Amino acid sequence: MSEPHRAPEARLRTAVIGGGWAGMAAALGAHDAGHAVTVWEAARTWGGRARRLDLQLPHGAPVRLDNGQHILIGAYTDCLQLMQRVGLDPERLLLRLPLELRFADGGGIRFPRWPAPFDALAGIAGARGWRWADKLALARIALRWQWSRFQCPPHWSVAQLCQGLPARVMDELIEPLCVSALNTVAAESSGPVFLRVMRDAMFGPRHGSNLMLPRTDLSALFPDAAAHCLVQGGARLHPGVRIRHVAHDGRHWIVDGAPFERVILATGAHDAVHVVRASLPHVAPLQQQAMGHWSDGAAALPHAAIGTVYAWADGARLARPMLALRSAATAVDTLPAQFVFDRGQLGGPNGLLAFVVSACTGDRDTLQAQVMHQARRQLGLQLQAVGTVIEKRATLACTPGLQRPAPDIAPGLLACGDYVQGPYPSTLEGAVRSGLAVIR
Ligand SMILES: Cc1cc2nc3c(=O)[nH]c(=O)nc-3n(C[C@H](O)[C@H](O)[C@H](O)COP(=O)(O)OP(=O)(O)OC[C@H]3O[C@@H](n4cnc5c(N)ncnc54)[C@H](O)[C@@H]3O)c2cc1C
C-alpha cells in the first residue's frame, strides 16, 4: 500500500481502539486518507465478533471455524469493496448463490439468477408448497412497499408492516429473513430497518439479494488482510492489548501513553461504555458531560444473542450448502435452529454442519441438546457435538424506534461499530459502513 501524499498539518495521528470489522474499516479509511494510524485490539485474533475460532473434531483433528456462522448478501457493497481493497477476491472467498430459503423437506422459496425485480417475482411465483393466495398476498405487499419507497412510520414493527400476509408466508419467508438480517423476531423488529435491507437486497445493486457464504474463516475474509495492509503501509498494530481508558491533556487525546489528535472507539457498545466511563476522571468537565451523556445512551441499548452449534457425522451432507429449518417452541418440543450450513461444501471438513440459532435464549448445554434432537427430527442425522458458541451480545435487538448513539462522543473522540447510528442493522455491512463514515 503506497503512502498517500499529505501536508503535515493534515496528517492526523489517529488511534483506533478495537480490531473488529468496523475498526479495521476505519483504520484503512484513515490510512488511505493519509493519516498516521495506530490500532489496539484486546484479543490476539483480528475480527471481533466475526473472527476465526479453532476447535477439534470428535476424532481429535483440528478444525478452523468461526465464533459464529455468518452470511453476507450481494448488497453488502462496502464489505465487498473493502475485501478487494486489501487484495482479496470476494468471488473466490465467498460462495455466491441466488437468494434461497429452502427447507429440508423441499418447501420454500428460491430466486432464479435474473435481474431484479424479475428474480423476486419469479421466486414468489415458483415458491414450493404455497397456494396462489399466498403468492398474490406477498406480491401485493411487496408492490406496496415499493410504491411507498420502502418507507414506513418509524415506530412500526415488521409484523405491522406485514399485516394481512398468510401464516405460511410469514413462517417460510418473513420470519427467517427478519431473524437472519435483524436477529430479532418480526413482532419485535423495526419495520424501517427491515425495509431498508429489503430495498437494498431486492432493488439495490445488481445481484443484491444473492447470498454469499464464506468459504474461509472470518478473520481471513477481511480483518487479517486489512491488518497486513496496514502494517505494510506503516501503521502500528497492537493485538492482545486492551485499552482501559483514554485521557485528554488539554491539547491531545492520550492513549497508552501516546498523543493523538483523534481517537476512534471501535469496540462493541458494552466495551465502549466501559472505556468512556473509566476515562471520565481523566478529561475536562465539559468533556465529562458529553461523554457521560453518550455512555448513558449506549448503556441502554438492548442486545440479542446468537448461538452456533457445530456438529459432525461421518458422511453427513446436506442437499444444499445452506438450508432453512423449521424452528418451533411448543410445550413438548423445542427446535431452536433457523438455519444449517454444510461446512463441508464451504471449504471445511466433510460431515461438519453449523446450526444457527438467532435471537437465542437458554444455556449452552440445553441448546446443544435441542439442536441435536432437531437434526435427528428434521434432517434424519445422528450427529456428535463439536462445539457450541453463544455470543450473548451478538447484535443489537433491532426494535422499533430504537435510538442508537451518534458517532460523536466528544470533540476528537468518536465511536464506530454496528451499534452506532446508521441505516443498517447490526451486521458486517453496518459495522464497515460505520467505520468508513466516521473517517469521512
Ligand atoms: C454469532 C454471530 C452471528 C452473526 N451473524 C451475522 C451474519 O450472518 N451476517 C452479518 O452481517 N452479521 C452477523 N453478525 C453480526 C456481526 O458479526 C457484527 O455486526 C460485526 O462483527 C460487528 O463488528 P464491530 O467491529 O462493530 O464490533 P466487534 O466485532 O465487537 O469488534 C470490536 C472489537 O473491539 C475489541 N475491544 C473491545 N474492547 C477493547 C478495548 N478496551 N481495547 C482494545 N480492544 C477492544 C474486541 O475484542 C473486538 O475485537 C453476527 C454476530 C454474531 C456474534
Model description:
The protein is α+β, with helices and mostly antiparallel strands and 440 residues long. It is globular, with a radius of gyration of 22 Å. 33% of the residues lie in helices and 22% in strands. The chain folds into three domains: 166 residues, FAD/NAD(P)-binding domain (3-Layer(bba) Sandwich); 111 residues, no CATH class; 94 residues. Helix 1 runs parallel beside helix 9, helix 1 runs parallel beside helix 13 and helix 10 runs antiparallel to helix 11. Bound molecules: flavin-adenine dinucleotide.
State the main characteristics.
binds flavin-adenine dinucleotide; single chain; six-stranded mixed β-sheet; 23 strands; 3 domains; disordered N terminus; globular; 440 residues; five-stranded antiparallel β-sheet; alpha+beta; 22% strand; FAD/NAD(P)-binding domain
Q: CATH superfamily name of the largest domain?
A: FAD/NAD(P)-binding domain
Q: Treating each run of at least 4 consecutive H or I residues as one helix, how many helices?
A: 13
Topology-level CATH name of the largest domain: FAD/NAD(P)-binding domain
Mean pLDDT: 92
- Counting helices, strands and paired strands, the structural category is alpha+beta
The termini sit apart by 20 Å
Shape: globular
Estimate nothing, just give the exact number of structural domains.
3
CATH class of the largest domain: Alpha Beta
